[in-house]
Amino acid sequence: SSGRHQMLGSCSEQFYSGFLVAMLHQGTKRLRRSLHNRRKAGSPGGFTKLNDQDGSPVQSPEAAIVEAPNSVCKLKNHIIQCILQLVQTTTSFLLMLVFMTYNVWLAVAILLGDMCGYMIFCYDMPDLSSGCS
């Protein structure tokens, strides 16, 4: 009986670990995307509005005044993106290895964790797969 409880505890730990790593994977993807979008939106010299007649971009007068961001800030952002890319790639490979064990319960844990991670971290992103808006 004690061996059965230990095995059940071990299985549930593996299930929750796979679930949490899959959620972490979705969270990392979302964090990288939001950091990239925030940096892109704050970059000077870009087009800030569209022409009302033909929809072409119009250069804002403020964009010419703002100086280019310094290279230290760019380097810091790039290092952060590189570290997040490493975490994302590592979790992807770990999830793939766990999934390839062909253990049904671990595969279900990864799928449910990925779904819940997407639901939590990507709730405000547009759904590009369906025609509904």
Task: Jot down its keywords.
mainly alpha, elongated, single chain, 133 residues, 4 helices
- What structural category arises from helix and sheet content? mainly alpha
β-sheet strand percentage: 5-15%
Oligomer: single chain
In helices, the fraction of residues equals: 55-70%
Strand order of the largest sheet: 1-2
Unreliable parts: 63-67
* Mean pLDDT rating: 79
**Radius of gyration using CA atoms only:** 22 Å
> What's the total number of strands?
2
Shape: elongated
Biggest sheet overview:
2 strands, antiparallel
Query: How do the SSEs run, as a string of H and E?
Result: HEEHHH
First-residue to last-residue Cα separation: 54 Å
Instruction: Count up the helices.
Output: 4
